Amino acid sequence: MHLSSLHKMKDFKEKHLKDLMGKEIKILDLGSQDVNGSYKTIFDVPGWHYIGVDAAPGKNVDVILTSPYNWSQFARSSIDVIISGQAFEHIDFFWLTVLEMRRVLKDDGICCIIAPSSGPEHRYPVDCWRFYPDGLTAMAAFGGLKPLEVYTQWNDDTDYTDGSNIWHDSVLIAKKANLGFWRDFKLSLASVFLRP
């Protein structure tokens, strides 16, 4: 996990989760495997239950998903916060993953997705995408999420010692939108029938 990504996730916690301090919440980290660091210590707060989720077993993985598009291990509306950093570029059909995020988020749930807008190819096992703010906004709209903050770190003002400015990470912070019964029902159907 590169330093610029850790910095952005800490910023998300400080700006958007302060009202959850002292409360019992579940935080799902999608793509949690500790390859070169993780977000786990950022969310080491009394009452906060961190769940590391990935497609394969490994360090910092509590739950192995059967598919990135079918999170059968998690009930509808059971998670308060979903975080994901440096994973979405490795998900073939990320828009289907967003539908699962919506399904498991509670009605007032919030998510933070961090993904690169640039940088070299780094297959793990694939490297499919780069993201800009408009793309993240479109992804949120498709998945029934209401953006709270969307940006890309375009400047190189911060001197990260690991050279992580090369990724120019984009960030989406969004809440589960109240779409009404029919739209929610259609998204639920889409998440089932569009799976590969």
Query: Beta-strand percentage?
Result: 15-25%
CATH class: Alpha Beta
CATH architecture: 3-Layer(aba) Sandwich
The radius of gyration over CA amounts to 16 Å
Q: Summarize the main sheet.
A: 7 strands, mixed
Describe the overall structure.
With 196 residues, this protein is an alpha/beta fold. It has one domain: 3-Layer(aba) Sandwich (Rossmann fold), CATH 3.40.50.150. The protein contains 4 helices and 7 strands, in the order H-E-E-E-E-H-E-H-E-E-H. Helix 2 links the parallel strand 4 and strand 5. The chain starts with a helix and ends with a helix.
Descriptive terms for the model:
24% strand; 196 residues; single chain; seven-stranded mixed β-sheet; Rossmann fold; alpha/beta
Secondary structure layout:
Blueprint: H1 3-16, E1 25-30, E2 48-54, E3 63-64, E4 79-85, H2 94-104, E5 105-115, H3 133-142, E6 145-152, E7 170-176, H4 181-193
Parallel strand pairs: 1-2, 1-4, 2-3, 4-5
Antiparallel strand pairs: 5-7, 6-7
Helix pairs in contact: 2-4
What does this entry show, briefly?
The protein has helices spanning about 5-15, 95-105, 135-140, 180-195; strands at about 25-30, 50-55, 65, 80-85, 105-115, 145-150, 170-175. The chain is of the alpha/beta class and about 200 residues long.
